[in-house]
Design goal:
Arc Repressor Mutant, subunit A; 4-stranded antiparallel beta sheet; elongated
């Protein structure tokens, strides 16, 4: 069954630079388990016992936390070939630090961190590569979380939106792009209310800064957008 997911796994940074034979050898050591979830089903719940980090084989999930007021804040939206729970795994936590909810029906492969960091009984050539890949993933995730904190520290909705749109522009390399979340999810991600977010986006459209339709955004005045960022 796992062989059918080879192409998806090779797109994951955890298995970067591994060919089919090396990957199958590593999976034989890792002994992962695959679980299916329906849309809106909880994959993990914050505070529950941690039993291994996950790799998304199909579908997408939202990683969420609750703020001091009890409101949901979206930390990240993850799709096929992305992993979650890696920081909790290697921090030695025994419980999930975030809640993960299936955005669509999905299949997720779970692996225990001890198998990755432990001594490989088969002395797989790719085991060292696997450890290096995981360190790279954890480092980038820490950087991403710092960016999230940066968003939360911004006081105005306009500044948050301008920063987010500029970041997507840099990632996707073009002024017209589709953001990877719906309007209510973007509001949760930026920690603002949905009506306030929509009002600010409409103001930016009326000022000739952006155009939008659903999740599609077009930056009209890149320089004006840049001036909104402090």
């Amino acid at each position: 069954m796992i062989k059918s997911w080879i192409k998806v796994l090779q797109e994951c940074r955890l298995f970067c630079d591994m060919d089919d034979e090396e990957l199958m050898s590593m999976l034989d050591c890792l002994k992962p388990r695959i679980t299916s979830y329906e849309k809106n089903e909880f994959v993990t719940i914050s505070g529950q016992e941690f039993n291994g980090f996950g790799l998304i084989l199909t579908g997408s999930v939202a990683v969420t936390k609750e703020n001091a007021a009890g409101d949901r804040v979206i930390i990240d939206i993850l799709g096929t070939s992305h992993i979650f729970g890696e920081i909790a795994a290697f921090a030695g936590n025994k419980v999930w630090s975030a809640t993960v909810v299936a955005q669509t029906s999905c299949k997720i492969m779970f692996m225990t961190p001890e198998i990755i960091l432990g001594t490989c009984k088969k002395q797989c050539i790719s085991h060292r590569q696997l450890i290096g890949n995981m360190l790279n993933i954890v480092s980038k995730k820490a950087f991403s979380l710092n960016q999230k904190i940066h968003y939360l520290s911004m006081k105005s909705i306009r500044e948050k939106l301008a920063n987010y749109f500029l970041e997507q522009y840099k990632i996707q390399g073009q002024t017209t792009f589709v953001i990877p979340m719906k309007r209510n999810e973007l509001a949760d991600f930026l920690n603002v209310t949905r009506p306030s977010l929509s009002r600010e986006m409409c103001k930016m459209r009326d000022e000739g800064v952006i155009e939008f339709y659903r999740e599609s955004i077009k930056i009209i005045a890149l320089n004006k957008l840049g001036m909104m960022v402090k």
